[in-house]
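During the no-cost extension, the postdoctoral fellow (Dr. R.K.) reprocessed legacy sequence entries with the updated structure-token encoder. One reprocessed record is reproduced below for audit purposes.
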Amino acid sequence: MHNKKQETKKSQKNQLNTPAEKNSLPTANSVLSDEEEALKRQDAEFVENMRRGGATRENMEKIEKEAARRLKIQNNQKKQKAKEAKEANEKKDKMKRFHDDLDRFHHSIEASIRFELILQTPISDIKNMEKMLDNLRNDLEKKANNKSLKKASENNARHCEERNDEAIQ
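Re-encoded structure tokens follow.
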């Protein structure tokens, strides 16, 4: 009776874990780890068989076949990992090229919009803008000249005051 309770508890635990395992998709790493665990189990069985029965010709042939199979599996795993890495790099490169192309396209659209606006602007407006810019430039030049003249007159006045002070002394 006691054993049945323990067995039912164990089966209930296993049943609780089972739906989660069924819902999760196997990944490349989990598949590889399952294969590695199977290889470890086979190694343990082989070691146990060697202890029991010793090495026979059949055992040696089995060992060679198993070693060749394992080597093939390892090579396939390496090829698969290299292929996945290459695909990831290619995908990354494609995304970079896509974003670069998108940036160039965006800039060309902006330039074409600016050009279209210029083409739509009437010539009279452009001439008025040019006149306005010329007037602003002239005003700035006049202000700059006035400042330099003012500074020169201040320097001249200071110089005259210094001469007068010297003459008085």
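The chain has a mean pLDDT of 78. Residues 123-169 form one domain. The remaining legacy entries will be reprocessed before the final report is submitted.
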